[in-house]
Amino acid sequence: MSFDAVILGLGYVGLPLAQQATRAGLTVLGFDVNARVADSLNAGRSHVDDLSDADVAEMTAGGFRATTDESLIAQARTAVICVPTPLSEGDGPDLRAVTGATEAVGRNLRPGMLVVLESTTYPGTTDDVVRPLLEKLSGLTAGIDFHLAFSPERIDPGNERFGAHNTPKVVGGFTPACTDRVAEFYGRFIQTVVRTRGTREAETAKLLENTYRHVNIALVNEMARFCHELDIDLWDVIHAASTKPFGFQAFYPGPGVGGHCIPIDPNYLSHNVRSKLGYPFRFVELAQEINATMPAYVARRAQNLLNADGVAVHGAKILLLGVTYKPNIADQRESPATPLARQLASLGAELTFHDPYVTEWNVPRTDDLEGAAAAADLVILVTHHRDYDADHLAGLAKRFFDTRGVTSTREAHRL
What is the set of active-site residues? Predict the structure, then answer.
């Protein structure tokens, strides 16, 4: 049997990609080193926010199956690597999962295959890390015996408007022929394919997208601090500025930034510039400094709210609402709720949390949302899930700190 594609890494990037390819009629094999992931998918159970069990059942009916048997990679015409690249201690990406997946492909590479890296990384990874490994293990030459390309993932978990099918796909090949081949592959199941000059441009495009957001979020986070001191309603300022029909895009402050993209990806570019060119990418490093200190700033504001009413933060009952990194999903990667809870606990606060998407966290959970909100000395809205009526909860609470700017009631204190 042969497959149109094997997708290595069946997480929040690889699984939606496999879904779209399967829906378009491609025969897709999913490969993951985690046997539990493969087994649960084959049993019809999803482990990512954007796919339901019914979606997985539909994929299985369309011929999709998951495996931990790397020898099956040899039966695929295209191999797509969608494995995690967490931040390493040196602020560059930890490429162990990428090299592991690349080695699995290299041991099973056949002439004519297309290999695509989707994992976010620094410019040059496809050419300097992936290509030599593939060539060494297979004895084949990229651009001659097989095709090689980079295509950055653009999955936005929880986004109900844009998914894998209708988000434009950037592709860059090792050679022009490689670009043609990767564009043809993704064009079979993604609406719009955007070509770049090569792999480095495609790698850097992903980092520019996230650095742009990182820097602008840092801008409004810094403005939030001095606007509070100057008694200026920043949320009203942003609303007013947003009425300009050109030259402005709204970004909003918050208790910190989470997920993989914003707090981590820009560091790859900064690290690459420092290591290869010897000087800093100052915008990124300043943005990182500002955004990373937001949980501590929120904790300090919380302490001040209690102090203003003569309540010590030590021993105060504080309820955290929403501990995922973004609304309406269960994803907790790099959530600012974690360092915020750590800061508050270090001040002696007694913490509980509520989150409709999270059953266990590192502080006690409450199921009684309204009762807990009324009993707490302070309620902090960290992530605004659709389940929360923030104005109603603010009316119940002794003190309500809204870090997301969603309340309109005077009882709430906004960031």
Answer: 261
